[in-house]
Amino acid sequence: MNDTADPTGPSEDEAVIALAASMLDAARQGDAAALLPLLDQGAPANLRDSAGNSPLMLAAYHGHAELVRELVARGADVDLQNDRGQTPLAGVAFKGFTEVASVLLEAGADPDLGVPSARETAGYFERAEILAMLGSSPA
Q1: Is the pLDDT of residue 73 over 90?
Q2: CATH architecture of 12-134
Q3: Measured between alpha carbons, how far is 90 from 69 in angstroms, rounded to an integer?
Q4: Who contacts 76 (Cβ-Cβ below 8 Å, separation ≥6)?
Q5: What's the N-to-C CA distance of the chain in angstroms?
Q6: Spatial distance between the Cα atoms of 20 and 40, rounded to a whole number of angstroms
Q7: For the chain, domain boundaries
Q8: What is the Cβ-side half-sphere exposure of residue 53, based on CA atoms within 13 angstroms?
Q9: 3-state SS of the chain?
Q10: What is the mean pLDDT of residues 87-101?
Q11: Distance separating alpha carbons of residues 87 and 57, to the nearest angstrom
């Protein structure tokens, strides 16, 4: 008998990938009860999926304001861009989630980062309330 891993079970790498996927799914679904304890145990707050989306990006894009607040409190980078150069605030401007925009702005998110920026996105999609929060008026 040897000390190698069971070939029928998941490898350590597969287990880590599965855990990361579950964390990203929890962020997308707004499942703070599943996600936050993992972060509190040391999982990286700025973990990224294959497209560069962080838990904060996914939570913000899906409108989970309280989870966004909790992720920020645990060190999530409010300006972390995905692989397409999009920021969480730009995603929120696209979706029109004013409460999430407020949380991100309170946490110091930069409305002029990214391509397109949150300011540009809010203007293009005529998100007057978000533009007002950014200190801009619709063009």
Answers
A1: yes
A2: Alpha Horseshoe (1.25)
A3: 17
A4: 45, 46, 54, 55, 56
A5: 73
A6: 15
A7: 12-134
A8: 19
A9: CCCCCCCCCCCHHHHHHHHHHHHHHHHHHCCHHHHHHHHHCCCCCCCCCCCCCCHHHHHHHCCCHHHHHHHHHCCCCCCCCCCCCCCHHHHHHHHCCHHHHHHHHHCCCCCCCCCCCHHHHHHHCCCHHHHHHHCCCCC
A10: 98
A11: 7
33 has pLDDT over 70: yes
Q: What's this model's pTM, rounded to 2 decimal places?
A: 0.89
Share of the chain above pLDDT 70, in %: 91
CA atoms of 107 and 54, how far apart (whole Å): 16
What is the pLDDT confidence band of residue 138, given thresholds at 50, 70 and 90? very low
35 residue type, one letter: L
CA atoms of 26 and 78, how far apart (whole Å): 18
Distance CA 66, CA 107 (A): 13
Average pLDDT, the chain: 93
> Is the Cβ–Cβ distance between 36 and 70 less than 8 Å?
yes
